[in-house]
Structure formats: C-alpha cells, structure tokens
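Components:
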Amino acid sequence: MEKPAAVAATIDEVSRDVGVGKDSLRVWERRYGFPQPIRGSNGERLYPDEQLERLRSISRLLDQGYRPGKVMALSVEQLDVLSAQLATGASVEAESSDNAVIAQMIAAVRSGRVDQFSGSLEQMLDRQGARQFILETAVPLLVQTGKAWACGQLSIYMEHLITQHVRAALNTAANSIDQSVTGPKVLLTTLPGERHGMGLLMVDLLLRAEGVETLSLGVETPIDQIIEACTDLQPQALALAFSAVQKRTAVIAALKELSDKIPEPLVLLAGGEGVSKLRAIPPRIRIVKSLDTINKVVASLRRDLKDVSAVG
Amino acid sequence: MEKPAAVAATIDEVSRDVGVGKDSLRVWERRYGFPQPIRGSNGERLYPDEQLERLRSISRLLDQGYRPGKVMALSVEQLDVLSAQLATGASVEAESSDNAVIAQMIAAVRSGRVDQFSGSLEQMLDRQGARQFILETAVPLLVQTGKAWACGQLSIYMEHLITQHVRAALNTAANSIDQSVTGPKVLLTTLPGERHGMGLLMVDLLLRAEGVETLSLGVETPIDQIIEACTDLQPQALALAFSAVQKRTAVIAALKELSDKIPEPLVLLAGGEGVSKLRAIPPRIRIVKSLDTINKVVASLRRDLKDVSAVG
DNA sequence: ATTCTTGTTTGTCTAGGACAAAGTGCTATA
DNA sequence: TATAGCACTTTGTCCTAGACAAACAAGAAT
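Structure:
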C-alpha cells in the first residue's frame, strides 16, 4: 500500500465536497486554526486529504447540532468518539417498533448485497401500496440512513445508492396509480436554494394517490417564475417543500412575497422540516406539519372547491 | 397595474437565481459598472427587480457564447435584439427534418395546454420504445427547449415543467424494460459540481435496454466515494456524465485521479458535452461521443467480459 | 488551412474587517 | 415549575481592493 499521492483539493472542491461555504472555511482557519491548508504557488489554499477527512467528520457533527467552537479543535479520534456516542444514542431509539426490517435493509447495503436491498424495497412497495410505503417504509428508511451516515456507519456512496433506489421505487409507484382526475389541481416546487427533491416527489405521489392532479416544476424555481406559473396554470393550490437546511429569515421573506403577490383564491401550502418550527408565519400560508395529514389537506381543498362552484 | 413593491434581492439570492458566482457579480460591478445595486443599512448590495431582469437576459446570452465585455453595457432593448437574432438563427435550423412534432409539443406548453403535451410524450414513448424515444424525442426536445429558453421564448417555469415530464416519461420507460440480467455491471454517477441528472438517467436507461445491470449513485459523488464504491461493488465499468458547464482543468484532473486510483481491469467511460471536446485525455479513459453509440460500448464490454472468463 | 505566439479578457482566489442572526445562559415573572 | 425577557457569545456571510492563471481573440508563421 503506497501512500496516496498527497493530492490536495482546492477551496472550491472542498467547499462542495464537505458542504461548507468558502467563506466559512477561511474564517474557521482564522478563528480556530483549523483547517490549515498548505499553499500553492500563488498562495491558494490546498487542503491535504487528511484535513479533508477531518473536515468531513466535523461537518457531520455540525449537522447533528454540535457547534464549530466545540469540535474544531478535536482530533480525529475524539471526533470518532462523539460519532460513536451519537450512534449508541440513535440505536436505542432504533429498537422501537417495527423498523427491524429497515435496519435489515440498511445492513444489506452495508454488506454489499444491493440487489437484496432493492428486492426488499420492491416487495414492501407491492405489499403496502403507495401511501403506506411512503409513510412507513420510505421515510423511516431515509431517516435511519441519515442517522447512520451521521454516525459514520454508512459511506456517502451507500447513502446515494439507497436514495437512488428509493427514488426509483417511488417512480414505480407513481406509474401504478390509476389517475382518476377528479380532484383539485396543485402546483408543486421548491424555492431556490432548496435542492432536495425527494420530499417533493413523495408529496407529489401522496397527492396523486388522493386523486389530485399534480403539476410539479421540480426543485429551485425562482419566485417570480412560481408566480408566473400560478397565473398561467391556475391551480387551486401551490405546495412548497422545505428541508431543514434553509435559513429562516429567507424562508419567511419568500413566503411573505408569495403571499403578497399571488392572486387570492389560491391556497398556499408549505411543508417539511424547514418550515414546521417557524414562529412568525405570513398570512394565508398553511403549514402542513406531517406527510400523513395530506389527505386532510386534500379533503379541505375539495370542500373549498365545492363551495366556490356552488356559489358560482 | 401598480409597480411591484421594489423589493430588492441580496447577492446570495441573485447569485443562485441568475446562476452567476457572487465574486463575479462584484467584479462585474467594479469593471463594467453593471449591475449597480443599491445598498442596505450595512452596505450590503440590494439588487432591484429591474437589474435582476437585465442580469437574467445577460446570463442567457453568456450561455450562448457572448462575452461579458460585449453585453454588459447593453440596454434591455439591445439585449432583446440579440436574443431575437439567436431566435431566428435557431428557427432556421429547426426547420430541418422531423422535429415539427417537437416544435408542436413546445408550442403546447407555451400556450398552457400541459396535458396535451404530456399526452404527446406518452404517446411517443409507446410508439418508439425506450431507446428510440430517448434518442429521437427526449434529447431533441430538451435541446430545442434549451434553445427556446435562451432566446427568451420560453419561461423558466415552462422549461422546468418540460424537464419534469420528460423525467417522468423516462421513469415510466424504465419500468417497462424487462430486465434480463445477463450483461455486465456498470456503476453510474457524476462528479461533484455536476448537478444535471438527466443525462445520467438516459444513459442508465439505454444501458438497461441493452441488458446491462446498472447501479446509479445519482449526481455529485465525491471522488474518493466513487473509488470506494468501485472497490466494494466490483462493477465491470464506471460511467461518468458531464454537461457543458464544467471547468476543463478540473475535469481532467478528476479523470486522471480516477485513472490512477481505480484498480486495473475496470473500464472507465466518460460522456456528455463537457467531455466530448477535450484534448489531453488521461489514459484508460474511454470517451463516449454520443448516446447512440452506447450499444457499441456495451458490445465491447461484453467482449472483454467473455475474454476474461475464457482466460479464467 | 493549421499550429504557434502574443495580448486581452474574465473568473476566482486572498486578506482582514465588520455586523446581524442564531445560540446560550441568567434572571424575573405568572 | 415553567415561560418570557434580556445580555452576552458564537458564527456565517458580506464588504473592499488587489492579484493571477486559465480562456479567448487575433495575427504570424509554418
């Protein structure tokens, strides 16, 4: 085993890889003394593999709620200890209820039995149907996967693999829904900066399982484009998905702008972790706290629709 | 029509929206005098709607090959003239061959007949089958959509809508492929920074239509993770997709690293616009120039596989 | 008609300073 | 015993202005 050729990554590559802004990388160096990249011929930072690895560990812990000041000075070993603590904490919780199946599926991926994993997924989908599959298999699976990754028990590529297979399964489910187009029309998307499309896809499916006609724009639609789409396509509702990464003030500002600029009868729905614990919610915005309340939301939409047509 | 409430976007929002780096926005201001945002209470840049609009036009033209020094000083009217010129240029080319159907589909979206558009898509898929649908409908449709967007003839949200429906159609196609798992195993992904997943999805489908067992990691897998995945999963080949946006030097460096670190018998495939006109290609990397040559690549993989098993 | 050379354009890097939003912890109130 | 208010600390992102390499353009020489 020769040592890898000590290739060093640029700040741009590191920023993308670890998921931390370039400014943050520089200010961490200034404040905490880590990372301390070597310099190229023109003074550019070049991060050695070893520091990159440590940065990845740190970033994982930051996602779990630790703060930079606490973890930045720690050695790789100490970081691993913290990860391990999180791992035991998570596994206690994992013993609950029926997620033995899910633990088994993750274990299959970890030991390289990918086809067995995807087989289990399809089997669950067959058995449970779209709605139950999403709520009781897909979501818990992704949550557990996230936890396992945060604890360093799962490689990034395994997380990618799991995500891809879940996505494929959801698409399979989408094709098996018989569209009886009798419901309201809902426009779906996320705001710029929100790149996670999985939640959106699940909402899309759940809505269609309820007989709703969905129109998805995919992720990251600029606000003015959302408004234009609402004007052109005249949906009954607009649904936005938020993951946990979002900045609160930006989210609220965006929701306020939508609430101001979108013509009145249209219902504005917002859901996802990034929005479920907001305080000051602009008027007209309806927060959907959980995926399993979507059927109630749809019922409410149907009622509104009937009222309007009764009046008109 | 009252004027919009003169809300102004921050540099971060503008950067994401227009797709231009923050540093570039600042240096454009310094060099060309545009944009010239107003300043907030602490000196932060706040870009008025009007400048944002102009930035979007400029960015479109930059994508088409114009250079900042030429277009930055131009007024909105002059920018529109350039866009119009591109539009006529494009339409001349569009008259060729059989893409009348495609023009019609785009026209349907423009006039709000979305269900008609998606109906046509499904119909084409039924008629053509996966392979032909991708090569003769999906790709030309996306290319034409890109051009129409570049000329300002298509809103961004319409492009999103088209992309989403094509994606859905491809997933439908994926489910209709009868997997006779007799072929080689291929690992699929893109490098960090490459966020376009459509090409990847199409390659995935084409490979599976040829009987290949594909394993997709989705987009943006870090290089060390790609290597780890290759070691763990032991595919016959690794396929990487590149769109046109990539930086050449970074692409070459990444390919070289993969070529160095990935164990020998594995075949390295690279495809997409971002890679088709590269000069200095690292050894072992095989460039796939076009989607319709994938069947030949598969044939070659099959041959290699047979040779190895004959020897072993 | 191609390759080489020179000059110009353009994106991204650097440094250190600044400030608001988010988090932490203490105190006073129902 | 909780909850709300208030100061204090931490942390991410923005600012300015300078520098340089990669990408491009255009002319020269094969």
